[in-house]
Give the backbone structure.
Amino acid sequence: MKNKITVMIVCLAFVVAINSCGQQKVDTKDNLSTNMVFPQGEKVTSENFKGTVYLKMFIAGDSINPTSIGNVTFEPGARTKWHLHPGGQILLVIDGVGYYQEKGQSKKILHKGDVIKCPPNVPHWHGASSDKHFVQVAVTNRHLGETVWLEEVTDEVYSK
Ligand code: MN
């Protein structure tokens, strides 16, 4: 009996250890989920982003289906530059707390489960809140052209 219990405890510890190996590398001190559906991907080095951003591109898009789909993780304070998508974009918020703002509109606060439809050719930016991660799946329609990058989002605009 004692042996059976010991074997069970060892097995349980093993299962827990295996499960924790599959967890994301993202820092969890701001309560970002540790068991994300999609991988975090690689650190983005593009100058079109400020702060620390990770991208896992799932679908690059091609002539038959010109839609790119990628998972973007913004660390607190990280954001895109102002930009526009000629064919529009859809953002599916899958974790954390972030911001989305269209030119001339006030900043929206986004939470897990929110869906944003960025209209074609409307300048906007998106990113994490100042103290929480933000994870979004970006669905970008590229049939009318590539993303046009504009100026940086100043700290004044970001924190307004
Ligand atoms: Mn966008």
DSSP finds two helices and twelve strands in the chain. Residues 14-24 have pLDDT under 50 and may be disordered.
